[in-house]
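dumping this here so i dont lose it
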């Protein structure tokens, strides 16, 4: 129907957070520096604008990694998955309104707990809108998982996501061409407005702005909290991220908990049974719709068989004694599935998904005692390189392997040189060249990005973390228990071995919480039972003040100076306790030690 007149989406400071024209080069023929299948997928994903799905349902695609869906109601428009950041979501809503009129947003649905499906919510509604009655719907468990995933391990995930999505790579035939699921992640303001209503069961029906919706809960599939939703009056089925035009991840390369392909497959069967007779089109929060009942059923059935096959065959082979790496080299998809474009590994891959299934059932250890207590990477690398005749000899032989086209082996062996001698210039350049070639040949978008990001950082140094989901809204959504847990994982354990500090907080309503740092572990105890140690300080304050002092918004001494805060004992105890907390590193090394 059209796209935005201005191709560049900027934040309030004028910084570019998304460029709609960045992938214009994909219109040309595929070059030798890209896999033709991935090039085709990226070209499709880069199409941007407002698209009509069916009467009254529209999607804005190509404005972020994900799609934003808009369902027209009696008074306004219901928004499904408002992208990753406020800036792209606002631009998407403005585009819709330019073509369909200035309709108010009358509701929001988060289909699942990944940030690219809720982070842009402040671009479509405000806190005042929600307070005035605009509902925000989400699956049961959404808030817990959205917050915990992005805060507990958020720093590491965001650093690895910089590799996975390649947001810092130059766009072009030798650089970033897409991520398979979408193009890349936007770099604007990530936010969160907590849900006002939970979807708690399959078959639950809700009506918002005259729009009738029937929900299917699908926990443990693509996200720990996820749902599909059917629109009976339009015979339309939203599959969230449970059925998209690629093989998805069972363990995303940025890191996450391993997903369950057995459950995933069964929920797809359930979706077919629940909605198949009443559906003439299916759409998702990535990629493009499928129209026609027969095509929808075939699409969902093939997606179901895709995940079921990987699960069952991995279990078959691991029960024959195969290791994860051996299984990944062995499994091939059935020809009927391989022929379907939507089963290709543009985002997930057969290789790393089968390893994920192995990890889910058997963990990291392959059962071989030789692998039970290996040296860590640097110590192993020094020994390998010494055994192979020194760094120069390894690089010399690796150059011959490069000339032979064995880029995979070059990357594997030169890795040891770099971890033994990170400043070895020839090794850095050869490794960058090998990673680059592996990236050029990859059908998987995230593999390409990982390889090219590794090459980029070997040549030019770290680019850091372009996008962070550890945002103020997510911190504000933490429960107090999650706040305490987030502090506990920041304790510098060895430095705190000999510390024994207890601080008790008294909240309005008589709630008592004791934090104790002992043996390098920060524990919290509710109430006054035997697990609550005698405190070195007791502080009476509000929950807001407690959050502020624990999250660094106010110092303990400034807090103690306030008239509405009562301190008994030594406020220095709290200062000392917080002093054992370290800061995560958003710029840690990946391809070097």
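and the seq i came up w/
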């Amino acid at each position: 129907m059209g796209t935005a007149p201005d191709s560049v989406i900027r934040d309030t400071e004028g910084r570019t957070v998304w460029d709609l024209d960045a992938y214009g080069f994909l219109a040309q023929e595929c070059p030798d520096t890209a896999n033709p299948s991935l090039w085709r997928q990226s070209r499709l994903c880069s199409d941007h604008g407002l698209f009509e799905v069916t009467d009254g349902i529209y999607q804005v695609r190509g404005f972020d990694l994900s799609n934003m869906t808009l369902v027209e109601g009696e008074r306004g428009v219901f928004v499904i998955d408002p992208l990753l950041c406020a800036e792209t979501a606002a631009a998407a809503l403005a585009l819709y309104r330019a073509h369909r009129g200035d309709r108010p947003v009358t509701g929001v649905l988060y289909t699942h707990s990944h940030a690219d499906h809720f982070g842009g919510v402040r671009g479509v509604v405000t806190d005042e809108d929600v307070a005035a009655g605009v509902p925000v719907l989400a699956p049961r468990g959404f808030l817990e998982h959205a917050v915990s995933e992005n805060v507990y391990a958020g720093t590491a995930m965001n650093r690895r996501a910089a590799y996975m999505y390649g947001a810092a790579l130059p766009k072009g035939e030798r650089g970033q061409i897409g991520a398979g699921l979408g193009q890349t992640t936007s770099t604007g303001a990530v936010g969160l407005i907590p849900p006002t209503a939970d979807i708690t069961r399959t078959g639950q029906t809700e009506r918002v702005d005259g729009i009738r919706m029937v929900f299917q809960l699908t926990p443990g599939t693509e996200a720990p909290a996820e749902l599909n939703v059917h629109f009976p009056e339009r015979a339309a089925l939203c599959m969230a991220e449970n059925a998209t035009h690629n093989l998805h991840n069972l363990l995303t390369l940025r890191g996450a908990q391993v997903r369950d392909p057995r459950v995933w497959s069964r929920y797809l069967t359930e979706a077919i049974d629940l909605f198949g007779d009443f559906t003439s089109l299916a759409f998702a929060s990535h990629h493009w719709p499928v129209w026609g009942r027969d095509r929808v059923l075939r699409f969902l059935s093939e997606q179901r068989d895709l995940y079921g096959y990987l699960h069952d065959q991995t279990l078959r082979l691991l029960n024959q004694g195969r290791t994860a790496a051996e299984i990944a080299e062995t499994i091939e998809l059935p020809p009927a599935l391989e022929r379907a474009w939507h089963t290709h590994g543009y985002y997930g891959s057969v290789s790393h998904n089968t390893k994920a299934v192995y990890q889910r059932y058997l963990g990291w250890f392959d059962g071989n005692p030789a692998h039970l207590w290996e040296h860590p990477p640097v110590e192993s690398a020094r020994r390998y390189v010494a055994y192979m005749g020194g760094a120069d000899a390894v690089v010399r032989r690796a150059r011959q392997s490069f000339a032979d086209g064995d880029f995979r082996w070059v990357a594997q062996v030169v890795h040891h040189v770099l971890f033994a001698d990170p400043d070895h210039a020839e090794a850095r350049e050869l490794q960058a060249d090998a990673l680059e070639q592996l990236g050029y040949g990859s059908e998987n978008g995230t593999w390409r990005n990982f390889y090219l990001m590794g090459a980029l950082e070997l040549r030019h140094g770290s680019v850091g973390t372009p996008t962070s989901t550890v945002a103020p809204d997510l911190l504000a959504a933490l429960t107090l228990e999650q706040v305490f847990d987030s502090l506990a994982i920041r304790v510098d354990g060895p430095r705190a071995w000999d510390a024994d500090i207890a601080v008790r907080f008294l909240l309005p309503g008589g709630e008592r919480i004791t934090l104790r740092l002992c043996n390098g572990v920060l524990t919290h105890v509710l109430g006054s039972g035997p697990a609550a140690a005698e405190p070195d300080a007791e502080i009476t304050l509000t929950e807001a003040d407690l959050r502020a002092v624990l999250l660094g918004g106010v110092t303990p001494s400034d807090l103690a100076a306030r008239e509405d805060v009562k301190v008994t004992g030594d406020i220095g105890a709290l200062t000392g306790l917080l002093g054992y907390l370290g800061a995560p590193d958003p710029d840690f090394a990946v391809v070097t030690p």
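The mean pLDDT is 96.
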